[in-house]
Specification:
- With 271 residues, the protein is mostly helical.
- 46% of the residues lie in helices and 0% in strands.
- The chain has 7 helices and no strands.
- Helix 1 runs antiparallel to helix 3 and helix 3 runs antiparallel to helix 4.
- The longest helix is centred in the middle third of the chain and has 27 residues.
- The radius of gyration is 35 Å and the shape is flat.
- The two termini are 58 Å apart.
Amino acid sequence: MQQQFGAHEIMELHEVLNASIDAINLCQVYLPFVRDPELRQIISNQMQFMTTEYNNLIYQINGRGGGRAIPYRTPLSKPGQYGVQNANPVQPLSSPEQMGDRDVASAVLGLHKTGAVMKMHAALECADPEVRAAMLQGANNCAHQAYEIWSYMNRRGYYQIPVFQEMAQTNMLRGYQPMDQALPPHMQPPAGSTDAGQASPSEPTVTSSVGTNQDASANASQIFSSSVYRKQQATTASPLNPNLSMGGSAQSPLHSLPDQPGSEHKADPLM
């Protein structure tokens, strides 16, 4: 039985699967134009992985046990070479026969960058946790494959890294300072306050015991009402008042108002 998906998931999966097919097809188109054996090996390995990843996703969404998405493993690469030196001019080709290693590598790099963005966007729209995990892993895989292609291009001088002057870099980045961990003034607890969950000495303690005739609304009023109302309640109808007789009512004064025809009960302005 096919798994149930939401409308957003179906639309996002539709876009991701179409993009995956296009990426595999385009890599097959580009591969015959590759002359460098290293680049040919990289693209061939990536095509094989992309095909396996696509099939696993198809099995997963059709409920045929695709399992978890597999991560793409890239060989350890050295840090990129910074700086621009003798950059070769770049322009569109007038015919496919002019396509070289730089053109193929740049095109494949663009495919992986697009795939990473699409799959991450799809993950943000997924409700199914397994599909979401597959999209997140797929976005990460595209990022690793893009970095592998970029590393090759950087070593060959196809994708150089421009840098700022040292003074500009210092002014732009080192001006940021860590934030103080202390609470700002508007979040500081008031003077004399106690820890959360403990009653303040200036506030009446609300207690309850089995067998008392205290109304639930009276308890709530001591918590949510103003301090003026709580003081008034404590001196008139609260069981905390030592002068209250044993037979007296423990209800709030609002509950003791008589119901008279034609009269309207006005809300206490202190509530």
